[in-house]
Amino acid sequence: MDFGIGIINKVLNRPTEVRGELGCFGLGDWWLQTFTPAEQAHIEALYQRPGRPSRKRPLTRGNRSSAYQTAAGLLTAVAGQLRKSPDDRGLACKILAKAQDRALAEDDILGLHFTYQELIRLHYSWREQFADALDLAFGACYKQTRIAPQAAKAFQQTYPGRALPVHVGYELMAAILEKQGDCARAIECCKQAQAEGWPGNWVWRIQRMARGPSGSVTSISSSGITPITQ
After folding, report:
1. Side-chain half-sphere exposure of 111, counting CA atoms within 13 A
2. E strand map for the chain
3. Does 197 score more than 60 pLDDT?
4. Residue 103 near residue 68, CB atoms below 8 Å
């Protein structure tokens, strides 16, 4: 821990050691240096795992252990509890930025997948309240789709025999592109998701978007990128 931060914490009677789930992943210094005491208390009040008494503070107290396997997994879960209020968006973004850093540093592809998924849900939830929210959600969709093949492989290796989950990035990216009138790119997105094995009503969406204004079906190239010109 930085010596100066430690002295300040002692003078202000703040805890100088973080145990609990954050301590388990070596996130104590980051926690103390990133959030004010009031913000720390607010985050801990919102983060309560099932079965834990409300007075417990599992993030920073108790044994250095966690139900999550990775730092990104824990941080994404914490950020998920901050999605309910627009006032907490800034705090959630700081937590998810750290989750992304740790996932990248630890080559945690599933942690990165779920970090981007939480970013998508966070920003899309508040698209009406923040001017930049929709663009940030779309950007997170793009990042999640970029790692989709690796994520699919990681899911299959970690959970053999189980179907892949819904891919939020592909689902929302296709919806946004279609709403913007860019059906060619939306179709490409659906075809890519289908080819990688992510579940969804991709065929129906492709066929629907291939219909022209009159309702007649327009033939689509085999790549799914552009209509075939007659």
Report:
1. 22
2. none
3. yes
4. no
